[in-house]
Amino acid sequence: MSRKLMLVLAATAALAACKREPEAPAAAPEAATPPAAAHTFTADITEADFADMVKALSSDEFEGRAPGSVGEEKTTAYLEAQMKRIGLQPGNNGSYFQDVPMVETTADEAATTMTLATAKGDHALKFGTDYVIGTRTGQTEVKLDASDMVFVGYGVDAPEQQWNDYAGQDWTGKTVVMFVNDPGFHAKDGALFGGNRMTYYGRWTYKFEEAARKGAAAALIVHDTAGASYGWDVVKNSWAGPQYDLPAKDDPEKRIPLQGWLSAEAARQLFADAGLDLDAAYASAGKRGFKPVPLKAKATVSLKSSITEKTSRNVIGVLPGATKPDEAVLYMAHWDHLGKHEGEEGDNIYNGAVDNATGVAGILEIAEAFAHQDPKPARSVVFVAVTLEESGLLGSKYYVAHPTFPMDKIAGVINLDAMSVGGKSRDFVVTGKGNSELEDMLKVYADQQGRVLTEEGNPAGGYYFRSDHFNFAKAGVPALYAKGGNDLLEGGVEAGKAASEEYAKRYHQASDEMHEGWKLDGVVQDLQALYGVGKDLAVEDKWPNWYEGNPFKAARDTMMKAEPAKQ
């Protein structure tokens, strides 16, 4: 055990006495060559200290770090102790904590029923096997009685694409059934919705939001492993046990009474009973001119849940800027994971070692580097460990609505989520590559390390919309999400893909634990580069922007116009 960890555990104990689809990295071009020597930025980022923190955060003692649990209390106390040890100051009006109000909703799976009445008879579906369902209404019982089911393609209303899957109907009281991803995913037209690169219209969160705006009573997404970029087990595990949300008063978005997923098998049976072929439906849904299709079925649902109002916490530390303390560079990572699944046989603690003990340890290592930096940065550097990422990016959503630094004072955001632990790589994967000028800053350090910037290996997965930086992006703040790639120095692309496939088996499973096969020299390499980007942002007058054509650029431009000095 390192001296650093011993100090932190001691501080944590003292505090206690006082009272969050794995991404497939892309292979680098074959022309990439190993660097002669990686650029070293600081001696304060080390494999040993990183490993100590990951071991602690992903240990069974932290019980999977579920928000609102004993595991949260241990996690947030640990993070506070770490920030104090590093020398970060409290980031929220004298406190390291920002309270995040939440509503915990737990479905009574045994008492919850879904029956689909079709021309072939009534089908009683099994929770977890055939479907998952939940509510964001805050009601303990929600019922749906013989609601007409209608297939709405991808459930998209995109005026700029001249596309509306909902056109021409009144959706009040109806159950809409839709595919995951967006029309570009299955279409052969590469220009349609960005082709194989998912747009926000492909995210499941958007689909429920749009169905609510249309007035539907329920929305069901048909699971497809390729379209979702994760298997049914990920859906099932993510929807098992307590589900969290912000109180309605803290969320202006309209909410649909019932929202959930159908397994591919259950959907295929539903379509077959209506005389439809599911594969043919995929083809028709990806063509312009698609019209909603009645499924000649009625859905009856009875959902019973327990509702508890709780409070979770974001943890915030800040290193005040020497000359521009009101301007900030922000590093972030989510501390939460899926907790402990009571009643589940065998190992029922979802430790979340990669997802996202690695990211939290990463921002703390970078904080250590900044704390020892001389000269001190001109701008403040903020480190935010957010809660409720696994529940829909809620902790970061709350922070953006209640920021400790105004959005127009944040030069840029760097997010660490599920770091690559396969070793050093020739490539540096920028999720959503082609978004902002932060990538130009990262390229400087990638070049010094002999690496190339690449896009994620599965752009159809929509990974840029699946982590906490996205809430900052929507507010206009350029946000970078990058990690080690798939072309490993030891073993090349083949070894990288094998490591990625192995992690895919562990993603959102109890088996996401730290193990001896991890190679952390690549993590250190990544952290050094990401530290370099933030260091440049913190000592210069740069105000990075989004590239032309990016949907978030308008909000950033408005910020720039408000303060001519930023232009």
From TrEMBL:
<dbReference type="GO" id="GO:0046872">
    <property type="term" value="F:metal ion binding"/>
</dbReference>
<dbReference type="InterPro" id="IPR045175">
    <property type="entry name" value="M28_fam"/>
</dbReference>
<dbReference type="Pfam" id="PF04389">
    <property type="entry name" value="Peptidase_M28"/>
</dbReference>
<keyword id="KW-0645">Protease</keyword>
<keyword id="KW-0862">Zinc</keyword>
<dbReference type="GO" id="GO:0004177">
    <property type="term" value="F:aminopeptidase activity"/>
</dbReference>
<dbReference type="InterPro" id="IPR007484">
    <property type="entry name" value="Peptidase_M28"/>
</dbReference>
<keyword id="KW-0378">Hydrolase</keyword>
<keyword id="KW-0732">Signal</keyword>
<keyword id="KW-0479">Metal-binding</keyword>
<protein>
    <submittedName>
        <fullName>M28 family peptidase</fullName>
    </submittedName>
</protein>
<feature type="signal peptide">
    <location>
        <begin position="1"/>
        <end position="16"/>
    </location>
</feature>
<feature type="domain" description="Peptidase M28">
    <location>
        <begin position="314"/>
        <end position="516"/>
    </location>
</feature>
<dbReference type="GO" id="GO:0006508">
    <property type="term" value="P:proteolysis"/>
</dbReference>
<dbReference type="GO" id="GO:0008235">
    <property type="term" value="F:metalloexopeptidase activity"/>
</dbReference>
<keyword id="KW-0031">Aminopeptidase</keyword>
